[in-house]
Amino acid sequence: MTAQAGSPSVDEAPPELQKRFEDTIARDQRIEPRDWMPDGYRKTLVRQVAQHAHSEIIGMQPEGEWITRAPSLRRKAILFAKVQDEAGHGLYLYSAAETLGVDRADLTERLLEGRQKYSSIFNYPTRNFADVGVIGWFVDGAAICNQVPLCRSSYGPYARAMVRICKEESFHQRQGYELLMTMMRGTDAQRAMVQDAVDRWWWPSLMMFGPPDDDSPNSARSMAWKIKRHSNDELRQRFVDMTVPQAEKLGVTLPDPDLRWNEDRGRYDFGTPDWSELKRVITGDGPCNEERMARRRAAHEEGAWVREAAAAHAAKQAARTQNGAVA
Ligand code: BYC
């Protein structure tokens, strides 16, 4: 990524532009697409926002698999709405990325060629319907902890996209928890399904927040630029503190023998996730990486005719407008 046309690189940027950028960040105001910004700031945002957009789109797959198998019409309608929301989140985020001067088609290409990432969490399988509830509770709960602070991110279009996304994530989390509450009031077999899903999704959910702070190469710079507002470990801790009382209320056990309230810190202590597993999953060797990417690639190819039709329609409209006809 280079600086936008007309936007000089840091070395050659007039000092007043650099100062204005730094002052805007210091005053907690927003950087907008028209403003000068350092190349590194732009690159970091493209990386994070694109990765976030890819995650939303690939994140439709694990739950999407259950739409045809949902146990009732009500559950089917709820799940349909949730998965559709995720497509919408991906679209808001690709639009936010495009304000940085990149093209959505190019970002998709980078994902398909393995040059950009998506969240590790979507490389785990959904084995039973309780997984749908646990994804809502844990994965959307983790998303809320991570994304609410992003509503105050220093880049305007990203922050504004996050406001709407967070409202919808809130509904997603509640639907997951409500589904689990219902299953916990059901049969022993249903309760066992919930506990099994909790056991499988707990540690991968903690890994969603990224590597520990002392192994997070991007955090310091992103926090100085106020793209990220809190460190990975701080957000992970908030998620644990929020989730433990919910687990107690639900009647499930979180699979961590080291989990306990620490009176001095006023927070929960918890065990260490298997960071080698996160590394493996991020580098393509998780349980479902191949399957997820194959599905994403197939969807892209199957959708070629839609993109061509949309482009042809847009060209026709543009030609009509140019000829002075009413569109
Ligand atoms: N998975 O220096 P670090 C959702 C990468 S969608 C994969 O700490 P950073 C939902 C990281 O990119 C959830 N990769 O990085 C959707 C970096 O590699 P690169 C998606 C990960 O950026 C559907 C390297 O590891 N949420 O909620 O400062 C249904 C070093 O990490 C992961 C977002 O995208 C990971 N878990 O912090 C339901 C939120 N963790 O890029 C729900 C926005 C780290 O240098 N993103 N990496 O090659 C963020 O907040 C930050 O980008 C992260 C990582 C906290 C994820």
TrEMBL record:
GO terms for molecular function: phenylacetyl-CoA 1,2-epoxidase activity. Residues 17-29 have a biased composition (Basic and acidic residues). PANTHER family: 1,2-PHENYLACETYL-COA EPOXIDASE, SUBUNIT A (PTHR30458:SF2), PHENYLACETIC ACID DEGRADATION PROTEIN PAA (PTHR30458). Keywords: Oxidoreductase. NCBIfam families: PA_CoA_Oxy1. Gene3D superfamilies: 1.20.1260.10. Residues 1-29 are annotated as: Disordered. It holds the Pfam family PaaA_PaaC. It is an enzyme of class 1 (oxidoreductase). Its EC number is 1.14.13.149. This is 1,2-phenylacetyl-CoA epoxidase subunit A.
